[in-house]
Automatic annotation (TrEMBL):
Species: Lupinus albus
Gene Ontology cellular component list: mitochondrial matrix
Listed InterPro entries: DHS-like_NAD/FAD-binding_dom, ETF_a/b_N, ETF_a/FixB, ETF_alpha_N, ETF_asu_C, ETF_asu_C_CS, Rossmann-like_a/b/a_fold
Example GO molecular function: flavin adenine dinucleotide binding
Cofactor info, note text: Binds 1 FAD per dimer.
PROSITE patterns (alphabetical): ETF_ALPHA
Protein name according to UniProt: Electron transfer flavoprotein subunit alpha
UniProt family annotation: Belongs to the ETF alpha-subunit/FixB family.
Assigned keywords, A-Z: Electron transport, FAD, Flavoprotein, Mitochondrion, Transit peptide, Transport
Subunit structure: Heterodimer of an alpha and a beta subunit.
SMART domains xrefs: ETF (SM00893)
Signal sequence, renumbered to the chain: none
Entry function: The electron transfer flavoprotein serves as a specific electron acceptor for several dehydrogenases, including five acyl-CoA dehydrogenases, glutaryl-CoA and sarcosine dehydrogenase. It transfers the electrons to the main mitochondrial respiratory chain via ETF-ubiquinone oxidoreductase (ETF dehydrogenase).
Amino acid sequence: MILGAFTKRAVSFSASHFLSRSSSSSSLRYGSTLVIAEHEGGVIKAPSLSAILAATSFNSSISLLLAGSGSSLHQAASHASSSHPSISQVLVADSDKFKNPLAEPWAKLVHLVHQSGGYSHIVAASSSFGKNVIPRAAALLNVSPITDVIRISDSHTFVRPIYAGNALCTVRYTGSSPCVLTIRSTSFPVPKNSVDSKSSEASISEVDLSTFDEDLGKSRYISQTSQDDERPDLGNARVVISGGRALKNAENFKLIENLANKLGGAVGATRAAVDAGFVANDLQVGQTGKIVAPELYMAFGISGAIQHLAGMRDSKVIVAVNNDEDAPIFQVADYGLVGDLFQVIPELLEKLPEKK
């Protein structure tokens, strides 16, 4: 039976979906949880901290898996050991094979670590990294992954969005162990005072890679590019200023960038703006881009396609500016202004104070 319930911004329902590899699957064990973590510059990335927070819902010991090479990896391991009191062990795989975030070596590493650890749950953030590694790792483990989890009801039951976030689905996992899932980091915000607590530090152990299979020639790392500016990361920014196709070209999109600079926020864009070449695709917000939940989201020239709304509807305050009073974006906006963005943005730039 499906129960309908209207909310402020979405219709949600509860349904049972059963994921099983075998009708004779044994009952799940709840001994320990493995969190697959990303690190950069010697620290754990924010989405992985959210994955750790989500893993505490299972009331089991947590092992954190880090991989890479060099001093940055060991600095990240030291940071991880004190990042949350629920972490009992940090596992470090130090090898050039994990220097770059390729799915094949990482998935085989997860499989190797699980063989020795026998984890009941394997958790990762639903980032580009998690979406790349987890499906392959789950295939090697012969289980069905549950992706984009936004709420953990119990050790078997999870809530995830479907239909581009317009409905919520309750999934009951009945498959064999381990239960593999990715979590939406915006749904598990990490309190600032929970990070870097020195009250207890987890042990750090090296992963034995002597039996690691090196047949990994299915893909190769070419290069990585990133935005080199002073703006905050789009996925974790408190303020996000986004623009759509209505800005017409890349030159006009600088209005969005200027406003973001003034407010100390990150720049976002719709898929249409990205496809038109106004900005790089790593700034895309939406179902096929980044999921954001800032304190303030300002949308300029964005009509409010369902795919875009899926990526920003959880923002605390949404402000929309569009010259079409019937634009769907106004249905989810807390504040809306019908007007020409080419007039509104210059006025905001003139009247808003400089960021402190």
